[in-house]
């Protein structure tokens, strides 16, 4: 949740920027695009943290990674009166890396710390250099007082914070993320200002998985195949994240035709129906699932009062009104 907080700091900073520049349409569009990107990033962080699948990312240029990391923290830097500068090794021009969102996540941690400890009118440097043919080194240098001697040895593996109000989690978790792919995070200079370096392999040595310290999610829905008929991307993603995190396998269907194909491919234990994708034939869709999966739990989710002409109590359909809390969905699935 600490990492989500960092991502949302970026989102809120850019929303504030957009509100302050309503007379400048391109700037507002840019601000909202960055906020939306980081909100999606926060969603990925949550999915990784609970052990849910995260789609593979396309390789991203090192230059784009630097730009995204620095641009995201621009409002925070301006608020603190700190200049944020980036430099790119010419040897990395056009070079790409996998795992860009995780790199940005780690750099966001480092940059927030660096901005917090640097004095007003100070400079925070973010740079990227080639690490031979096999890796890239990202460096973050601040103009703060440095890291006290007594904190240096355990800075990256214990709950030590480097900024006021910090939770002492960010650096430890960032170091774990780097190790998961064969990279590393290290403090390479402690005073008079601090410099951290993130070494990242050009070829990841293993699929990313949450660090071993992450608490295992609840498995209250373990083994259940849950069909979700939902055409709203955000609502589906919320359900997918929450239900997968509780051990379920989630299958998405966006319309009536896809529902027919999915039912022909195998049975499900639960079906969650949003009304809009099946509005033309709600009763028919419910009956189709009941016919293919006689013991399945059927649940309607809708923002409108749920009144289905001809709906028989024999179908055993439950309902949850939107907007809902995930606890309501879980409760109806585990009765």
Characterise the protein shown here.
- The protein is an alpha/beta fold and 335 residues long.
- It has two domains: 55-201, Histidine kinase-like ATPase, C-terminal domain (Heat Shock Protein 90, 2-Layer Sandwich), CATH 3.30.565; 225-333, Rossmann fold (3-Layer(aba) Sandwich).
- The chain has eleven helices and twelve strands.
- It has helices at 2-19, 25-49, 62-72, 74-80, 100-117, 149-152, 170-180, 233-244, 256-265, 282-292, 326-333; strands at residues 60-61, 83-88, 96-97, 123-131, 135-141, 184-189, 195-201, 225-229, 249-253, 270-274, 297-302, 317-321.
- The strands form three sheets. The protein has a five-stranded mixed sheet with strand order 2-4-5-7-6, with helices on one face. Strands 9-8-10-11-12 form a five-stranded parallel sheet, with helices on both faces.
- Helix 1 runs antiparallel to helix 2 (25-49).
- The chain starts with a helix and ends with a helix.
How would you concisely characterize the structure shown here?
The protein is of the alpha/beta class. The chain contains 11 helices and 12 strands.
Task: For the structure shown, list the relevant keywords.
335 residues, alpha/beta, Heat Shock Protein 90, Rossmann fold, 2 domains, 5-stranded mixed beta sheet, 5-stranded parallel beta sheet
